[in-house]
Amino acid sequence: MEKLLNLWQSTGIYQLQGGQAIMLLVCLGLIYLAIRKGFEPLLLIPIGFGGLLANIPGAGMAEAGGLLDLLYQIGLPTSVFPLLIFMGVGAMTDFGPMLANPKTLMLGAAAQFGIFGTLLGALAIGALGIPGLEFTMREAASIAIIGGADGPTSIFVTSRLAPELLGPIAVAAYSYMALVPLIQPPIMRALTSKEERAIVMTQLRHVSQTEKVVFPIVLSLLIGLLLPDAAPLVGMFAFGNLMRECGVVERLADTSRNALINIVTIALGLTVGAKLSADSFLQIKTLGILVLGMIAFSAGTAAGVIMAKVMNLFSSNKINPLIGSAGISAVPMAARVSNRVGLEANPQNFLLMHAMGPNVAGVIGSAVAAGVLLSFVG
């Protein structure tokens, strides 16, 4: 009987605490949303399953020496995982639409307003002294970067400034990226008239191969020399794009945008999931992070649309304001949403390629914003 009692007490069921049970349900919910609703399945399934493993009592997978802890030590404090993902994203990205219409860079820049506005908001909330919502400058900067709607950038900044918030910030960033088709359209419709949404934009000019090859090199040098803290993100993004466009290392480009990025995505998702422990996630601060992240994301969307409307006041070639919402970094989902809302107003209006310009600019903008935050706060 004593041995049976010891066996029972060694089971996870006996050791299971209330907080762990809640987190197991949360992680099962993430997996459900990924499988049944299609919300960022490539990330939410590894994150959700990593959370399950981390909250199994007695398994020790997220503790020192466990598999998930080893993956964390390899990939996040060193920033290896988010940087490799940025390289893979660069290998999948076409800068052509942005180079064909350079004005869209301004839309990508405007969409970063949500980051800096939320930074001030988080600091203001912290100054109020609300119990559980006292955010330090480093925590506020990590929360604010959610507004860029760029998961790897959020992880990159948070791992350096506030690693204890990595779980809730990563979940918030990827959740809002997945919810782009639900969050953005109401904001876009509220800020534009039907006539504005029906604006047909002129055909984009052809971008030469030489321009596409030169641009990532110039981008890396320019950002690296002006803002070294942003050089890791922008540099890896540009390197991946150079492999895509130069035409002489197709094997490397193919590996970056397929096998390598898939392997790193699995490891990154499991590692982030390991940070969804009950002790670190079930706090009032987590709710504050989710709310502030939503505000940041919504503000970035609104700022991009408003900037497009302002630009139309000074331009003869009108910009459809809907493409301004694509200035956040959720590539290519935000561009698809801009195209879908545009088709509702004008079935002959195809905005996808036009929206890809600010969408790609938003990736660069969020990386630059991350560099600015690291420079001032880190």
UniProtKB/TrEMBL annotation:
Pfam families membership: OAD_beta
GO biological processes: sodium ion transport
Domain of life, source organism: Bacteria
E.C. number(s) listed in UniProt: 7.2.4.2
Transmembrane helix as UniProt keyword: yes
Function, as annotated: Catalyzes the decarboxylation of oxaloacetate coupled to Na(+) translocation.
The protein, known as: Oxaloacetate decarboxylase beta chain
Protein species of origin: Thiopseudomonas denitrificans
